[in-house]
Write a structure and sequence with these properties.
Layout: H1 2-17, H2 25-32, H3 36-52, E1 57-61, E2 65-69, H4 72-85, H5 95-107, H6 117-124, H7 128-143, E3 148-152, E4 156-160, H8 163-174, H9 180-190, H10 196-210, H11 216-231, H12 245-251, H13 255-271, H14 277-289, H15 303-327, H16 335-354, H17 363-369, H18 371-377, H19 381-388, H20 394-411, E5 415-421, H21 425-438, E6 442-449, E7 463-466, E8 477-479, H22 486-506, H23 512-515, E9 523-527, H24 532-545, H25 553-563, E10 567-569, E11 572-573, E12 586-598, E13 601-610, H26 616-632, H27 636-644, H28 648-656
Length: about 650
Amino acid sequence: MKRSKEKFYMKQILSGIIDGEVKTTGKIAQEIGLSEKSVRNKLNELDDFLAQNNLGIIKRKPRVGIWLEISEDQKEKLWGYLEQRGEIQLESYNPKERVTETLKILFCLRPWQAITTQKLSEKLYLSVPTMLKVIKECEEWLGYYNIKLINERNRGYRLVSRENEYRIALKNLIMEKNSSREIDLNLEYFFPNVDVSTIRKCIIQAENEWNYRFTDESFYEILVYCCLAYKRKEFENPLIMDNHVEELEILQKYNEYAFTVAIFEKLEETFHVRFSHEDVLFLSIQILCSKFIGISEIEITLEQVKKYDIQLMEFVDRLLTVIGNIMNVDLVSDQKVKESLIVHLRPTIFRLRYGTPQSNNLIDFIKKEYKNVFRASWAISILFEECYNVQITEDEIGYIVLYIQAAIERKTHQYKAVLLTTSNMGHTQLMKERIKKVVPEIKSLECVSTHDFKLDDYKDTDIIISSKRIKVRDKRIVVIPNILSENGILALRNHFDAVNSYINERENPFSPECCLLFSPELIFTHMRVKSKKEILKIMSDAMREKGVVTEEFFDTVMERENKTTTTIGNRVSLPHGSPVAVNESKVAIAILEEPIMWDNELVEVIFLLGFKMITKDEINRIQLFYKEYVSLIDTDEKISMLKSMETNIELYKYLIQ
């Protein structure tokens, strides 16, 4: 009601001066029943309205009065406006809009251009005094980004800033209003000569290939920054990035960096231009850090990446502490599981934040087989919400459970042992209790008379303990005289420590960096197939369904198979597809129940490689894989070990332990 009354007064004032009659503010106030101060305020607001619509100018002359300077055409439009609407619509002409429109003009200036106050006032249909007030507000807005508005004599105003702050400020100005329509209009305004539609398509293609679906806000941020990278190339204003080698190496470990590289590669291929490495760094840092660690929108440096990575390490420590406390096991001191989870969670958090949640076809098995670890791991869901503002699914929890389960089994490796004795029952029982106390890793200890012992009866025994040398020879036999003595107990403990060390080494074929290449859904055991084409199709389809390769991947695998053999000896084959058909580097593994003919050799173990090497981190990971892979399959015993794995989960845990 109050606003309607104000509009009525505005119309009354306008009606009194529209014919050019000179009136004092006192007379106008008397005619419409307001104070002179109220009239002056309304005249200022009315002046802005008229200027915005090019409907004349209110002139003022001290000790004379005010009048409306207006042409007949303008007067006709103004009367038509009043007759049709009956009131002055003022909502669109608020002070904030003036600041926004002025900023838009300033950001459209080229680095060497300037604009005077008079020109600005003419463009915005504002009086010069009002324009100066708006400029003051613009300076405050720009100051938040460390951007200065310089007024040069005889030239006018221009922006002075670093390129980093310029891009962030302009991005925020473009996205000031949340409406997609208004953002699109701003994109047309700021990038009239840029093919925004094609840039949009390139980003969508990258989204589809990586199986991500960004929110509208995140998508527009990436779109704006890509448009800026393309447009600002002509000005050669370098983005300032601190030359921190350590932070750069950390950044390249994150999927945000690899995803940004993929976008810029598509832009370069489409527009036939080259973007700077700093453009990639800048956008990847924005995607990685801008919303999740309270990053300053002014000081955008690689140092923020280091802070983000430290946060992840602290997060993993908290995660292991929570689960360890519930399971009553020390997980924090296990460096292997800590490093493995850090590597695993880098892409996981990106996927949870922006992508389609990863499905886990083995979740029912995991929940049943490792129910205690699974239940304990659910306690960490609140940590993801607290630290990263994402909700973790039970499918994603399942993958973490496998790492935790492998760590627990590694820490609590249990042995089946046999104690050979010639002593009486009482002495034997004493030795048994002492051994179990000193070596808690022994799950079961069977006491057997040396006279009755037959090696063939104990094929599944891990350790055979004897106080005397026996005729049979076996690497599992350890001879410890006087086992109840201090020296005997120490010798037994040292032996088990050596065995533990050997087993840990044997059960850690791959480093944490390489563990990211494996997935239980891409591991097949006890497969029965008739040809290499059949098994490669099964493996390729599984990789495609998981989204790590494209539909063309299988054809590229077979194309390479037709050119050259991929067998490498020991009944192992190492086929691979083209990197252009790979979205995310992964290795599929198949263990055959019976060997098949692969060209001119028999093969029973297949590692299908889907590798792409865009970033330095990816290149290092793949080189490390080849180095560690050699020791995985270099003997018949190791091949037999792979074949002995009953399930894909068992083989997966072996690879990541």
